[in-house]
Specification:
six-stranded mixed β-sheet; alpha/beta; about 775 residues
């Protein structure tokens, strides 16, 4: 069924407000280097910039190392065929081009200049675009009308030594090709035998048919219709060459006549072009790609009324099988740019097709499952191609495209280590990947551990388990009712098997029940826990069950807290697991990965107002944990006071904590008490103490109290553009255990699992 969409007037108002506030437009140019002092200015511009210029004169290929060109695409249009709006001109096309730039950046990390040119003469337009080659690493042609678009792209490919890609043609062709391969697989029809009827003869339609023929569709089995009807041999002696290539000998003159017995309908024309009675005349299990936007040639619900056996794809996000160019263009450019491809050739496009088609047969990622709750996302009639927000797209398609460029001999910067390249792309997808790389590497190298998860029935946990198993991190132990877990696995479309892929501890029937409640009673009998209370808790409280399994050696670590209150879980951890030897307190540290920096904040969850001794202990525990990330800890002990500027009780407490840390660890980079700006700016810090032992930017921020830590963490998490959070990381427990929060994502569960695995393996 179609989802409820906002009324047109409301959508219009919201769209205009979105484009206008807080800053007009959707893109901006941001410097990638600091320009904070005279030296920076001298390096960025005169005289330092001359050295970069000389290097490029000596070796033109060096432009990829000293400028942004290798990651810069021009999205170029003359506004002659914008979306479904027609020839609205280059100025009105600018919002669309800015939007395309946003997609490049968001999905593939590619920078874009949107370029709108007031030129309708194809040859002049070619000259203008070709002259930009020194500026750009690639050209994405957009919204240029047919048939000029074919000519313009072909000439630019001849003249330029960088990738040129007309997305309206090839993007749709690539996505539809992956979809048709899988639709034929679902129906069992042979690609060389199917009869195809196409409504539309524009750039996208012709490119789709060309690529389908490369896949194996027979040219003589294709009938194309335009606004005048069937394109047949002899219809028009002056027919455009792209259309004439599909003129065939046939008695059919209308779409109604041509559609009789067709296996496949491809629509890139107009709303309502495929009438219900036409669909009724198609062959068994008809494949209908109704790709007109915003309203397809036939609506899916109407199509199913006429033909319940129909397999549908549209260009809309509110129906299954959306043929969306964002599945292709960011990633094909990513792969092309990363190997310095001189063009995008047929081998690269075909590699993209095959990779997309294969992805649809794999189990969907956790992120995709969470983004589309309640949908059946497994290979079949309703899932022929991946979803646009599948994070694996860049890690699968870009390497496939890059490899095809290298194999076909057009890569000027071949990738030597493709596995490392995939890992780099994965880090782009998951911002936590950069900071977590060392942790994941250690987790995979370590001995096999058993991690117990009390929230075994939680859907996020079940999705995380698939990733945990794929990454080879641990063999999970889930606490929960097996029938509930199986039902929820089935609901999310998971192929995991209870008892085979992971162990399940059933609170109602586990064979260790007596051992666990007996040990729990012994542990807590002097704190008011009777035998009956112990028995009840070991049936009803999964965190207590998990903690006892860890205590008794049935598990090596524990992740809990996806449901319920943090302090509830922490209390059970403290009572059962206890504190590490010599440790007087526990604390929680959050790891923030923001653009350009990694930061750790303590104590975000546990100690309301720690004293100086506790702050020092928290600092030492934080240092030990930060080193697991292969990051050199640089501590700032924060306060409202800057190096004695205030004599308040809070400021003196922090200053005393600094003295304790320095006395016990004189080689540690630590300073305070100081304000937040001093912690993050060496220049500000030098104004107060040029001999500060803390160099550069602090990466471990020890806050004076719980309020300061928690507020700072959540503000930074929400305002840091594209930032990601890892944690809370529990410090000071006797065994490897972490208590998460109810808002934790699937990815955070996976990251925290890697942490606890490393900790468990080391112990």
């Amino acid at each position: 069924m179609e989802k409820n969409n906002p009324p047109k007037a409301d959508l219009c108002e919201a769209a205009l407000e979105y484009h206008r506030y807080p800053t007009p437009g959707k893109i901006a140019v941001q410097p990638t280097k600091g320009l904070s002092n005279q030296l920076d200015l001298a390096l960025a511009y005169s005289p330092g910039v001359a050295y970069a210029c000389h290097a490029i004169v000596d070796d033109p290929a060096a432009v990829s190392w000293y400028t942004s060109r290798a990651n810069l695409v021009g999205v170029i249009t003359n506004g002659t065929a914008v979306l479904g709006l027609g020839n609205i001109g280059p100025l009105a096309a600018k919002p669309v081009m800015e939007g395309k730039g946003c997609l490049f950046k968001k999905f593939a990390g590619i920078d874009v200049f949107d370029i709108e040119l007031a030129e309708s003469d194809p040859d002049k337009l070619i000259d203008m675009i070709a002259a930009m080659e020194p500026t750009l690493g690639g050209i994405n042609l957009e919204d240029i009308k047919a048939p000029e678009c074919f000519y313009i792209e072909a000439k630019l490919k001849e003249r330029m030594s960088i990738p040129v890609f007309h997305d309206d043609q090839h993007g749709t062709a690539i996505i539809s090709s992956a979809a048709i391969l899988n639709a034929l697989k679902v129906t069992g029809k042979a690609i060389g035998e199917v009869k195809v009827v196409c409504s539309g003869a524009g750039a996208a339609a012709i490119s789709c048919l060309n690529l389908w023929c490369d896949l194996g569709v027979r040219h003589e089995n294709i009938t194309v219709c335009d606004s005048k009807g069937v394109i047949y041999a002899g219809r028009d002696p002056d027919m455009e060459p792209t259309k004439a290539a599909y003129a065939r000998e046939t008695e059919a003159r209308t779409l109604y006549e041509a559609i009789d017995g067709a296996d496949v309908f491809l629509g890139l024309s107009a709303a309502g072009a495929l009438e219900p009675e036409m669909l009724a005349r198609m062959a068994k299990q008809p494949i209908v790609f109704a790709l007109a936007n915003p309203t397809p040639e036939i609506m899916p619900e109407l199509a199913r009324e006429v033909r319940p056996d129909v397999i549908m794809a549209t260009g809309r996000s509110d129906y299954a099988n959306q043929v969306n160019n964002v599945l292709c263009f960011p990633f094909i450019f990513r792969g092309a740019l990363d190997v310095g491809a001189t063009r995008i050739n047929e081998q690269m496009k075909m590699a993209c097709v095959r990779a997309l088609a294969a992805m649809a047969e794999e189990e969907v990622s956790a992120e995709v499952g969470m983004a589309y709750p309640g949908e059946e996302l497994s290979f079949g009639p309703e899932y022929l191609i991946p979803k646009p927000f599948d994070p694996r797209l860049i890690t699968i398609i870009a390497p496939a495209v890059a490899q095809a460029a290298m194999d076909s001999g057009i890569a000027t910067r071949p990738i030597a280590d493709m596995a490392a390249y995939r890992e780099k792309l994965k880090e782009f997808v998951y911002q936590t990947g950069v900071g977590m790389r060392a942790v994941f590497s250690a987790a995979k190298r370590g001995r096999r551990t058993r991690i117990v998860y009390p929230d075994g029935e939680e859907e996020r946990l079940l999705r995380a388990v698939q990733i945990i198993l794929d990454e080879g991190l641990t063999r999970p132990i889930l606490i929960g009712r097996p029938d509930v877990i199986m039902a929820r696995l089935e609901r999310i479309g998971s192929k995991l098997r209870v008892g085979t892929d992971f162990e399940v501890v059933d609170p109602n029937s586990d064979h260790r029940y007596k051992e666990c409640w007996t040990a729990y009673h012994q542990l807590r009998k002097r704190q008011g826990v009777t035998i009956d209370i112990a028995k009840t808790r070991l049936r009803s409280d999964n965190t207590i069950i998990g903690a006892m399994l860890l205590k008794l050696g049935y598990a090596d670590g524990m992740i809990c807290g996806l449901t319920g209150r943090f302090l509830h879980h922490l209390r059970h951890v403290d009572e059962i697991i206890g504190k590490a030897p010599g440790c007087k307190t526990m604390a929680a540290m959050a790891h923030l990965l923001l653009p350009g920096r990694a930061m750790f904040i303590c104590d975000t969850h546990v100690n309301e107002n720690p004293d100086a001794e506790q702050l020092a202990e928290i600092a030492f525990m934080a240092v030990e944990e930060v080193r697991r990330f292969k990051i050199r800890p640089k501590l700032a002990m924060l306060s409202h006071s800057n190096f004695g500027s205030s004599r308040s009780t809070s400021a003196r407490k922090v200053a005393e904590a600094v003295a304790i840390v320095r006395a016990k660890a004189p080689d540690l980079e630590v300073d305070g008490e100081m304000r937040g700006d001093s912690a993050l700016s060496a220049e500000i810090r030098k104004q107060f103490d040029p001999q500060s032992p803390l160099t550069g930017e602090a990466n471990v921020l020890v806050m004076p109290n719980l309020d300061a830590a928690n507020i700072s963490f959540n503000l930074l998490k929400m305002t840091g553009s594209d930032g990601m959070a890892v944690g809370p990381i529990l410090l000071g427990a006797a065994r490897p255990v972490h208590v998460l929060g109810p808002t934790s994502t699937v990815r955070r569960v996976v990251n925290m699992t890697a942490l606890v695995v490393v900790d468990a393996a080391s112990k």
